[in-house]
């Protein structure tokens, strides 16, 4: 009797628990609570299997079309900022209010674009849309299942390509772009990870991201997703003039990366000082006409750039292409005289002194009046505090004060969540403090957190080398060496040890091991050990530690091989959850026993919530599997009403199910004496304009110092300008 594997959707004999094609263990639950359970049927036709990939806008599953008996990819619209799925449910739960409006708008736009892209079903270079529908309170797109690798993966292996190998790939993408541009569809996210190389040599363009830009008809838009080195200047500008030339720049940047091994500098940096070198100056053997065509397509200014994909393709193969020189920038209107600089420095010092007095509490009672006082010029506003806000919220707050929002640099942070604001400066990278007076129309350039800069290496021991490599690459660890291990008792091809930058890692499942994102990882791989040939009884390994299981198997001449590691609070970390074959059965010496190992209770990344709106903080807490505890309110002159002052559990890795208490700001204290602190249980809408009793009971007049989490933004880091990459949008079939 045959059964269908939910890991690869291939049929095999039901007597086996593990798929012989992909190693998937039957009855494996969904990896995350918000994933659809494997084996679920949707639309009465499609069987849903394991997750192939996920991102900020959706989840992609392997699927099976039971009507056509065909393997497919199924994309579920699930933007994690606006919706989630509760445990043991199929329907998606959408957050209320404006998030519901944005969820609905994104879903509608995605389905509309699916309909348009379905017209290209026969186009060779575009992923085929087979079906699309609404169900489970969300939308689904059924696409062809692609088997191969991304251009990004190819470049990880070989760093760069000869021009003659790279050119056919670029020309294939150009053919696809000519078709979609003719229908007024702009891709907006062309980069190596969105170009897919199939096993038969053909090329597919992925990720037509409608949900990347929920239209400006709504008060908020989804975060603009830009990739370092590939985004042209117009994508950094609010309302920038985007068109076919936008895709031309990104594709030219991709071609440049393919043949030089280097990404072009950021277009924003090039606008100020263009340091882009011709490929020939980097040692690339390239025809001069082709190089001219490439550099024309990489011009920063739209008016200087190649305008269409068709024109770019024609120039790449032409024998007569002239270089388009960039239009010079307008001359500097003049430098400030020294005396004026001195006055400005003195004024800035005075502002900093005044602000220092404010944050130490001396002038807290007057802060509210300062913000609304008559001394503020008609064309001036006070700078907001953007630290720890999401990019969307920071942009909205900046633009609501008639200022210009701009993403500047990125920097690692142990406390600010990846993608959130870490600091704020002006266009000269000078720090802007909350409360600074700015002229309307001024630019606030934000520093974005890139996370901790470290990744936790999973428990790789006793995994097959290919499986271990895949786990590391999921984490972005791409520099991976292997060395032979001839001494450890293990079957051929199994990982027996892991090093990072030359140091042995204790990846034994007992604790997390963190390494730098750019670490060079070395896998020790067994060359195989000799074993006898007699029959032995397999010991029962369920519930024992991984090390103990290894020893028990070695004692009887059997090998340990790990299929997977997953969270399960029913087992301690490092304990065996299941095995194949089962304990008590017979095996021959030298055989392997395949096991699944527990990671214990799930650890989740809790953000530093200080400064977040209460609703967003609550959504973050509950969305990652934590519990909202006691919510209290307090006055705080430095935190706007309705935003978090402090949290009871520090940011970082926290065990799933932990309760987190919040203190929410009521805004500036209306009187110099300390007003009574009001308390409410999980109040989602704290009163931003409290009206305390004019005759409060006598209490001490000593105000509590503001918590440390309310300190002003740190000074801007000295890093290169970079746009944040927030994950793959909805149209990427991988997630």
Labels describing this entry:
single chain, 735 residues, 6-stranded antiparallel beta sheet, 4-stranded mixed beta sheet, globular
Helix content: 10-25%
Number of helices: 13
Our measurement of the CA-to-CA distance between the termini, rounded to an integer number of angstroms, reads: 33 Å
Query: How would you classify the helix and strand content by structural class?
Result: alpha+beta
Share of β-strand residues: 15-25%
Structure description:
The protein is an alpha+beta fold. Helices cover 22% and strands 23% of the residues. It has 13 helices and 35 strands. It has a 6-stranded antiparallel beta sheet with strand order 3-4-5-6-10-9, covered by helices on one side. β5 and β6 form a beta hairpin. The longest helix is centred in the middle third of the chain and has 22 residues, at 338-359. The radius of gyration is 29 Å and the shape is globular. The model is unreliable at 210-224, 332-374 and 673-735 (pLDDT under 50).
């Amino acid at each position: 009797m045959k059964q269908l594997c939910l890991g690869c959707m291939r049929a095999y004999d039901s007597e086996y628990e593990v798929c012989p094609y992909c190693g998937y263990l039957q009855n494996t639950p969904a990896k995350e609570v918000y994933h659809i359970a494997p084996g679920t049927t949707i639309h009465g036709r499609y069987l849903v299997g394991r997750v192939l990939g996920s991102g900020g806008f959706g989840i992609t599953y392997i699927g099976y079309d039971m009507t056509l008996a065909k393997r497919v990819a199924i994309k579920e619209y699930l933007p994690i900022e606006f919706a989630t799925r509760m445990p043991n449910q199929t329907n998606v739960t959408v957050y209320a209010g404006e998030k519901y409006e944005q969820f609905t708008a994104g879903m509608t736009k995605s389905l509309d674009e699916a309909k348009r892209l379905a017209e290209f079903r026969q186009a060779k270079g575009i992923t085929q849309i087979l079906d699309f529908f609404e169900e489970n309170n969300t939308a689904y797109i059924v696409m062809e299942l692609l088997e191969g690798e991304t251009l990004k993966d190819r470049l990880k292996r070989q760093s760069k390509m000869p021009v003659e190998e790279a050119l056919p790939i670029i020309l294939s993408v150009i053919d696809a772009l000519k078709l979609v541009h003719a229908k007024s569809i702009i891709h907006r996210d062309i980069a190596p990870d969105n170009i897919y190389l199939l096993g038969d040599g053909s090329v597919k363009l992925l990720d037509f991201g409608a949900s990347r830009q929920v239209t400006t008809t709504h008060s908020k838009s989804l975060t603009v997703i830009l990739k370092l080195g590939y985004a042209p200047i117009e994508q950094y500008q609010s309302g920038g003039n985007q068109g076919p030339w936008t895709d031309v720049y990104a594709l030219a940047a991709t071609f440049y990366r393919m043949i030089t091994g280097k990404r072009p500098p950021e277009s924003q940096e090039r606008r100020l000082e263009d340091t882009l070198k011709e490929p020939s100056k980097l040692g690339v053997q390239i025809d001069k006409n082709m190089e001219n065509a490439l550099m024309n397509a990489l011009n920063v200014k739209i008016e200087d750039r190649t305008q269409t994909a068709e024109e770019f393709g024609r120039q790449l193969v032409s024998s007569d292409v002239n270089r388009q020189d960039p239009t010079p920038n307008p001359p500097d209107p003049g430098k400030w005289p020294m005396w004026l600089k001195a006055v400005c420095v003195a004024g800035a010092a005075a502002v900093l002194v005044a602000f220092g007095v404010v944050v130490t509490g001396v002038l807290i009672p007057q802060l509210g009046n300062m913000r609304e006082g008559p001394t503020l010029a008609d064309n001036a506003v006070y700078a907001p505090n953007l630290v720890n806000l999401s990019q969307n919220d920071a942009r909205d707050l900046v633009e609501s004060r008639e200022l210009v929002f701009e993403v500047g640099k990125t920097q690692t942070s142990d406390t600010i969540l990846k993608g959130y604001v870490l600091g704020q400066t002006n266009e000269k990278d000078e720090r802007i403090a909350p409360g600074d007076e700015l002229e309307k129309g001024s630019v606030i350039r934000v520093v974005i957190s890139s996370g901790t800069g470290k990744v936790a290496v999973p428990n790789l021991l006793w995994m097959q080398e290919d499986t271990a490599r895949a786990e590391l690459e999921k984490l972005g660890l791409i520099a991976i060496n292997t060395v032979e291990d001839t001494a450890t008792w293990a079957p051929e091809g199994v990982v027996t040890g892991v090093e990072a930058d030359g140091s042995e890692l204790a990846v034994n499942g007992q604790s997390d091991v963190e390494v730098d994102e750019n670490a060079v990882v070395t896998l020790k791989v067994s060359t195989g050990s000799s074993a006898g040939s007699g029959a032995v009884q397999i010991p029962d390994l369920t519930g024992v530690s991984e090390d103990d299981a290894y020893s028990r198997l070695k004692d009887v001449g059997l090998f340990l091989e790990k299929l997977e590691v997953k969270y399960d609070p029913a087992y301690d970390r490092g304990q065996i959850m299941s095995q194949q074959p089962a304990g008590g059965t017979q095996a021959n010496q030298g055989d392997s026993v395949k096991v699944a190992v527990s990671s214990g209770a799930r650890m989740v990344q809790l953000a530093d919530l200080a400064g977040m709106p209460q609703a967003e903080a609550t959504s973050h807490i509950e969305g990652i599997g934590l519990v909202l505890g006691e919510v209290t309110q307090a006055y705080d002159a430095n935190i706007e009403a309705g935003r978090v002052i402090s949290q009871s559990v520090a940011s970082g890795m926290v065990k799933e199910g932990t309760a987190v208490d919040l203190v929410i700001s009521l805004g500036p204290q209306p009187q110099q004496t300390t007003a009574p602190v009001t308390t409410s249980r999980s109040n989602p809408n704290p009163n931003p304009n409290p009206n305390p009793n004019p005759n409060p009971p006598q209490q001490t007049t000593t105000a509590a110092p503001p918590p440390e989490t309310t300190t002003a933004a740190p000074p801007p880091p000295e890093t290169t300008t970079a746009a944040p990459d927030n994950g793959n949008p909805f149209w990427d079939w991988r997630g």
